[in-house]
Write a structure and sequence with these properties.
Number of strands: 11
Largest sheet: 7 strands, mixed
Structural class: mainly beta
Order of helices and strands: EEEEEEEEEEE
Helix content: under 10%
Shape: globular
Radius of gyration: 13 Å
Strand content: over 45%
């Protein structure tokens, strides 16, 4: 099982980044997918989620209207489009897969750093 995040980097405030999380080793279409982030010195927090069928999404309040989660089950990939980035979005971003029949079956990626700074 592997979840590999990519797309992080350094961006100026107001800029955009698109994170990707490529999955392998499990039936991606049966898993709900989530993006978490962990700012420096803080706990990991849920940012966005998308159901296995792709129809239902949720967002943490501070990213609503700026971030969009999506998935391509044919490519076994989940995305996080991040627009109008702010310095407080600086964090390591992780993707997580949770089985839609039992959240005990869950996998994490290794994380990708996003730094928003001028």
């Amino acid at each position: 099982v592997q979840l590999v995040e990519s797309g992080g980097g350094l961006v100026q405030p107001g800029g955009s980044l698109r994170l990707s999380c490529a999955a392998s080793g499990f039936t991606f279409s049966l898993y709900n997918m989530k993006w978490y982030r962990q700012p420096p010195g803080k706990e990991r927090e849920l940012v966005a989620s998308i159901r296995s069928a792709g129809g239902t999404t949720t967002y943490e309040d501070s990213v609503k209207g700026r971030f969009t989660i999506s998935r391509d089950n044919a490519k076994n990939t989940v995305y996080l489009q991040m627009n109008r980035l702010k310095p407080e979005d600086t964090a390591v971003y992780y993707c997580k897969a949770e089985a839609n029949w039992n959240i005990a079956y869950a996998y994490w990626g290794q994380g990708t750093q996003v730094t928003v700074s001028s």
